[in-house]
Amino acid sequence: MQQGPLVRRNTMQILLVAPAIVYLVALTQAPFAVTLWYSLHKWILTEPELGRPFVGFSNFGEALLHDAIFRTSILNLVEITGSIVVASLGLGLLLALLLNRTFPGRGVVRALLITPFFVMPTVNAVVWKNLLLNPNYGLFSWATDSLGLGRLDIFASAPKLGIVVMAVWQWTPFMMLVLLAGLQSLPNEVHEAALIDGANAWSEFRHVTLPLLGPYIELALLLGSIYILQLFGEIFVATQGGPGSATTTLPYYVYQTISQDHDVGMASAQAVLAIVVASLIASLLLRLMGRMFRPVAS
After folding, report:
1. Distance of alpha carbon 193 from the chain centroid
2. CA-based R_g, the chain, Å
3. How far apart are CA 60 and CA 216, in angstroms?
4. pLDDT tens digits for 77-94?
5. What pTM was computed for the model?
6. Quick one: how far is CA 146 from the chain centroid?
């Protein structure tokens, strides 16, 4: 007898959120559907006389089996993204532990440490490339030359390291904010109990703080990985994917395919494969974090 009002209320709730759901699906899935449709066709912008013939999955086979640079871009993507995520997560944890303590000027220090996250990626790359890492007049080159180590040309000798350094500087504040929020939400009673039991600072961090911080580490790792997988501005400004294809990642290679080869079909296939790779990486990260921080049921 009471199911009628409940059903009507549930129906009304669905109707209220339906416009937002339809808008979200149209905004996110419609472009992906169009990209998937393009990936099944051969369409080169500079050769309009060829039309847009249907070629099935040949673009995917060409990218995976016959394009060595595409496979290299996948490896570069995993290597660069993994290095950035691990380094920024470690530094973010250290800074979060520092800012979780009370000391004079903590608010000013927190504001200064957050600032890099609000810098646009292209501006970040310009500053690091021209002011800090330039081999002729950069700050680090001047420091190494003053120490008798010669001038530092990191984009020629270790271009991936240069990209990683720039991105870590920008993404460490994001990791710090997520982990700091986690630290400030932890109950003080657990820490007090650990101190009463005679735990030192390292034991308290290892056996109390780190396990309780696990969900926040998972969140920072997952969100950071999703955003960093899309890294483009630093590569575009600093290295243009070079030297050779040393810093060419999937997003940048898709850009090269459409901007240089004008091959819409191949670029669309590469973009779809990039989504698949990103989804696989995110799934693996979730499984890894789940095993590390969630207790196994007995």
Report:
1. 37
2. 24
3. 37
4. 999 999 999 999 999 999
5. 0.86
6. 35
